[in-house]
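Go through this one:
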Amino acid sequence: MKKENKTNKKAVCIMSGGMDSTLSAYMMQNEGYEIIAVHFNYDQRTQTKELECFENICASLHVKQKYILDLDFFKQLGASALTDKTIEVPTQGIEEGVPVTYVPFRNGIFLSMAAAIAEKESAQIISIGVVEEDSSGYPDCREEYIKAMQNAINLGTKEETNIEIKMPLVHLKKSQIVQEALKLNVPLELTWSCYKNEKKACGICDSCRLRLNGFETAGVTDPIPYE
């Protein structure tokens, strides 16, 4: 039986610079958690922009402790349009099944590394902005999978380490995410979702389509620039 952690409330927030993980971090802060921000550079197409967004969002959240981790493993692995530039990012609409933008076991690897940080920092929470319905068919965005990872993490850590993985957006639609972000005054203009571009979002990749549809359904204008 794991012991209860009595230390200050801390949440390790996996933050890509995107809208979902940013809202998740704001929700954790709103619940009174000290944010420990974690960002991964994995040679993704929009790495420079995502890192810039992460830094700006951390400033907005007044984050005191952050980790920026460089992973060249995914580039060596390839197998995804996000990390292998010989594979085109789809722009014809949402694909059936698991799309080519899926990075093999990415969230599993991210959660494992976040767990190591959480154990070191005596954090009670790992926050991840997975969304099941709008996840583009990614198998590592499912609630069942994240819960299984939580169980594995607690089995593989010290007795006094007791980590809960929070996924506050998992059952929300993109329009609901936009609405929740507006309620918490999340600076959506600092976030980025495009899979292809770093200056102006393409507006036609799966991620842009999901984002734009969410804003349209919510009845508000997306503040980031598009081609």
User: Anything to note?
Assistant: The longest strand covers residues 34-41.
